[in-house]
Design goal:
two-stranded antiparallel ribbon
Length: about 150
């Protein structure tokens, strides 16, 4: 794998983690949402990652000679949780049913925060890998200048 391919792989990982972070923030923000446009409480969403080829405009000329697959990561789909909502007895709530129960999303905001920290650290690991590759490229250029 060339240095430029490494940059592309890390960039795809950063993009995927950014998307996951947005979903996690949306989940946390809607952890108490009882009414959505679709009807019912908010449903937890999660990103599914899968390997995908990434384009590398800098090394496209070398791609055919290297014959190495350039695989990164991407979001293949967004899963929407189908668990039954949590029902709480709140007869004065505007979204209460005829028995006084309100349906709330069935997921833990604390678990979402832990996942958000994990996504942030994964994003940071990709930044660190990109910086290491940039340093190697810079040192290679300095050696060629001699």
């Amino acid at each position: 794998m060339s240095l430029f391919q490494s940059l592309s792989v890390s960039a795809s990982g950063m993009s995927a983690q950014r998307f996951r972070t947005e979903l996690l923030a949306q989940n946390i923000a809607n952890s108490e949402t009882t009414r959505t446009e679709e009807g019912g409480p908010y449903r937890h969403q999660d990103a599914v990652f899968q390997p995908q080829s990434v384009s590398n405009p800098f090394a496209s000329a070398f791609q055919t000679s290297l014959e190495a697959p350039n695989t990164g990561v991407g979001v293949s789909e967004v899963l929407i949780d189908d668990k039954d909502p949590i029902r709480r007895y709140m007869p004065g709530h505007p979204d209460a049913d005829e028995k006084g129960y309100v349906s709330f999303p069935n997921f833990s905001p604390v678990e979402e925060m832990v996942d958000l920290m994990n996504a942030s650290r994964s994003f940071g690991a990709n930044v660190t890998a990109m910086n290491a590759v940039k340093d190697m490229i810079s040192k290679s250029i300095d050696l060629v200048r001699g």
